[in-house]
Amino acid sequence: MADDNKTSIFQLFRNLNISGIIKLAQKVDLGKLIAKVNKMSESDLKKMMKMLDGGSADREPPPVDGDFYDLSDKLSPEERAIQLKVREFMETEVDPIANEYWQKAEFPVHLIPKMGELDICGLTLEGYGCPNKSNVLQGFIAQEMARIDPSFSTFFGVQSGLAMGAIYECGSEEQKQKWLPSMQKMETIGAFGLTEPKVGSAVAGGLTTKARREGDTWILNGQKKWIGNATFSDITIIWAEDVDSADVKGFIVENDNPGFTAEKIEDKMALRTVQNALITLDDCKVKEADRLQHAESFKDTSRILRLTRASVAWQAVGCARGAYENALAYCNDRKQFGKTIGSFQLVQDLLVEMLTNLTAMQSMVYRLSELQDEGNLTDERASLAKVVCTLKTRDIVSKARELLGGNGILLRYNVARFVADSEAIYSYEGTKQINSLIVGRAITGKSAFV
User: Domain Acyl-CoA dehydrogenase/oxidase N-terminal: where (predicted)?
Assistant: First the structure.
C-alpha cells in the first residue's frame, strides 16, 4: 500500500467519532447511506455539504432595523440630521430610564430642558421661534420617540401639537406672541382639556363644562378627564360651552388660577409615565384676554384634532416598531434546542408578519403626511390612518409578546410596556369606531352617527 494511502487511512480513523457513528447506526442503515453517498457526483456532494454547513453556521445577524423600505432616506440631509438627533436623545436619555419611570408612574421632568435644546417643539409652525419644518419630518420624530417610549411621545404630542396648535390656530396675535416662544423652548408646558368624565366620544354633541361671561371675565365650571401633562403644566387649554350661545369656546387657563385643580389619575395600566389629570373647575375666573379669540365653535376644535390625529397614527407606528425591534433582537439572542429561536421557521413567520404590517403602516402614514404638507389632509384620511395603524399595532405588539414567551410580561425585556401602551393609543384621539364612522360618512355620503 502506498505511503499516501496509509496516511489518509490513518487520518480517517483518527478523526472518526466512534460514539457518533454508533448513535447514527441506531437511526439509519449505514451501509445504504454510504452506498448512496458514494454514488453522488462531486457537484452534488458539494451542494449537500453547503446545505449542511448553512443550516448549522452561527452567522452574525444583521443590524435590527424596523425601516425595511428605507423610508427615512426620503428625508433631506437636514431633516435626517434632526431625526438622528432625536434618536440619539431617546436612546441615551430616555431608554435607560423608561421602564423605571413607567413602573413608578412618574414623568422625568428633569429631561424637559434637554428636550427643549433639541429645538423641535412646534416643529411645523411658522414664526414665534418655531422651526417651520415638514409634517413628514414631524411624523418621523413622533415615530422615533414612540419606538423608545410611547409615553414620552404622548407628552410631546400634547405640548407641541394640541396645546401649541390650539394657540397657533385659534389664538390672537397677542396670545401667540405671549405663549408660543416660551412653549417652543419648553420653558412653558401646556395641556389640552377637552374630554370630560361623562363626555368622551360625544364631545361634538355638547360639553358639560360651562362658561359664563360677566363683563371682561369668564366663569368656568365643570370637569375634564384624562388631561395629559396637566399635573405639572403651566397652562391648560380648556374647552367649554358658552351658556348664552351654546357655542364651544377655548380658554388659556393658567394652572395657578383660583378655582382650578388638577388631580393625578392613579392606577393606569397604559402610558403610566404620562401624567393624566382629572381637572375640576369651580368658579374658575378667566379674563376675556385669555379666551382664544378665534375659537367660536367645535369646528375650530376639530381643526386642531385633525392636525394632531396624523401624529397619533405615527405614534402607533413607533409603538409597533419598538415592539418589533425588541422582539427581533430577543429572537437573535435567545437560544432553545441548541440554537437561536430566530432560526426557527415558525418564529421567522411571525417576525415577517409583524414586519409586513409595520412596513405597510409606515408607507401609509408617510403618504398621509405628504398629503398634509400638500394641504390635502381631510378628516377621513386622518381617521383612516388612525384606525388602521392602531389596529395593526395591537396585532404587532401581541405577536412580539408571544415571541418572548413568559419573558414577554417582564418590563426589562422591553416589550410588555409597548403591549400595554398600545391599548391607550388605540383609544385616545378618537376610538376606532368613531374614526370608522368619519370614514364611512365620507365614502357613503351618509352619516351614521347617533
Answer: 76-187
**CA distance linking residue 419 with residue 423, whole number of Å:** 7
Please give the model's pTM, rounded to 2 decimal places: 0.86
Cβ partners under 8 Å of residue 158, min gap 6:
190, 191, 192, 228, 229
In b/e form, how buried is each residue of 325-348, taking b as 16+ CB within 10 angstroms?
bbbbbbbbebeeeeebbbbeeebe
> Amino acid identity, residue 438?
I
pLDDT in tens, 126-176: 999 999 999 999 999 999 999 999 999 999 999 999 999 999 999 999 999
At 238, give phi and psi (nearest 5°). -105, 130
316 and 390 Cβ atoms separated by less than 8 Å = yes
Tally of CB atoms within 10 A around 31: 9
Task: Kindly list the structural domains of the chain, giving each domain's residue range(s) and its CATH number in brackets, ordered by start.
Answer: 71-158+173-184 (1.10.540.10), 190-298 (2.40.110.10), 305-444 (1.20.140.10)
